[in-house]
User: Fold these one by one.
Assistant:
Number 1:
Amino acid sequence: MLPPLAARGVHAVLLHGLRGVGKKSLALDFATALLCAAPQADGHACGQCEECRLTAGFSHPDLRWVLPQALAEDLLPPAQEDEPPTSDSAAEPGEGGGRGTKASREIRVEQVRALSDFLGIAAYRGGRRLVVLAPAEAMNATAANTLLKMLEEPPPATVFVLVADELDDVLPTIRSRCVLVQVPVPEPKPCLQWLAEQGVAEPAAALALASGGPLAALASAAHESLPAETSAALYRLLERGPALTAAQVAAGVGRDPPVPACVRLMQCWAFDLIQYRARECVRYHPQREASISKLAASARSDGLWRWVDALGVASAAREHPLNARLVIESLLTGYIDVF
Ligand SMILES: [Zn+2]
């Protein structure tokens, strides 16, 4: 576990692993354990002391979060965003700057430089100081080099916790200064149960789409989920396969279907048909495997691939102001030609 690392005098840890497996939560648990005044025998925080209460409330003065503005808005209560929104002129030149009013997805060099004030004074509460920086790959080269100098000459009693989805995108010199900890993808069974408890309608599909990361699955389900009646109507049409008619399509598509989510559902359906033909297994619709297997047997390869192409075009064009109902109807009519 992580706390023993700090006991060994490690001053920088880089947690890496698939997006949405809970790395930031783990970083927070780690920070809480290191700041706790009465940690348990197994190294975990007590959850009761003043330090734990401050950390849980995102108000511990010796814990500093460094996040892109967009992430800080999601993660931290407003008072704790240590970087107030700045004008674009203050942003670093480069891929993250100059995005109009959109919150930046980049960790700017100013944010990293601001750490030197925090690190230049003794810990307020007399214990360790913690810096949690996520995601590490959101630093541009200038920001990363500024951080590197701090990692090369670490201030006493300070632990840096870096988080990265893509280890390869983190500067090698930074990686080499950190103890790398790979956060594994959790077992699917408890994830599926948890997603169902969170109200995700198709937990298996959501988890598969997120490659097994439960938090990523929940986030994408929240952003892209279809109303239950829309997805039920789509599945009813898709499951008819060769028996589907244009009249049923016209009657079955609602007035204003959310195009991206509908297209995504159909792409997953097409993927499973192809997967079943090739390997007799499904990825996104384990609960509909019986239907998929029947349909896969009567689908034609060329028709299936034409439908996949059409879905790809619709997916790429889905930001365009097209008539949503017509788009979905036309894709479902294309599905009839698969058989
Ligand atoms: Zn505690």
Number 2:
Amino acid sequence: MTATKDMRVLVVGATGALGGEIARELAARGSRVAVSGRSAERTASLAADLGVPAIPADLRSPGAPEWVVREAASHLGGLDAVVQCAGVVAYGPVHDLTDETLVELVETNLLAPARLARAALGELGRGGTIVQVSAIVADMPVAGMAAYSASKAGLTAVDRALAREARRDGVRVVDVRPPHLDTGLETRPIAGEPPKLPPGRDVREVAHLIVDALGDERAREVDFG
Ligand SMILES: NC(=O)c1ccc[n+]([C@@H]2O[C@H](COP(=O)([O-])OP(=O)(O)OC[C@H]3O[C@@H](n4cnc5c(N)ncnc54)[C@H](OP(=O)(O)O)[C@@H]3O)[C@@H](O)[C@H]2O)c1
């Protein structure tokens, strides 16, 4: 029996490497999961593997974050937690950043997670949890990653303020700022070429740490050592 057993959890970004590991680990620990990703095909395939509801959506579409939360609550008969792992990365100096890249980063990494959290507040009762996957660059911006770092710093600021606001309603916010992971994200940038990166941390190990934090009512962050 673990703290996440029977927990009703929406995993957003579940078609990604980290989100997929988190969804599988939660299912293995007995949580009741609903999965959401941008690709309808990959969302359906993961959902079929796990035997859970699929809620595909492009989070940049108007109303999509709110719809995803409503659908998950409707499928699971309520929600105990939302784990938000969707995100995109872009590289290159500020001089070369296009408006299109800036807008996609901010919409995906900051606005959509903020809208998801806002919608989740309407569904989570006392004891509910919102886990947001930000990134280490929120605290330590990196040259060649200004816009990504800024989008994640914005998300972490939302998380830290929301954590204080939501405490009185008994809702916990966990802001997760992983280091570089071995998910291959740097091979899928929406723009630019990655700078030299350190070896990536093992995604399964990091997913386990995040699920542990979800099950630990004292956790507000995850210590990556
Ligand atoms: N990998 C790292 O080194 C690292 C380090 C720190 C933090 N992070 C953060 O961890 C999270 C997961 O990263 P990852 O490495 O697992 O990346 P990934 O494998 O590329 O997964 C990204 C996820 O975001 C989803 N997504 C992107 N744009 C979307 C949109 N407009 N609407 C809905 N979903 C969208 C993707 O959906 P589809 O695949 O269905 O399109 C996918 O599920 C991201 O927030 C990332 O910034 C990663």
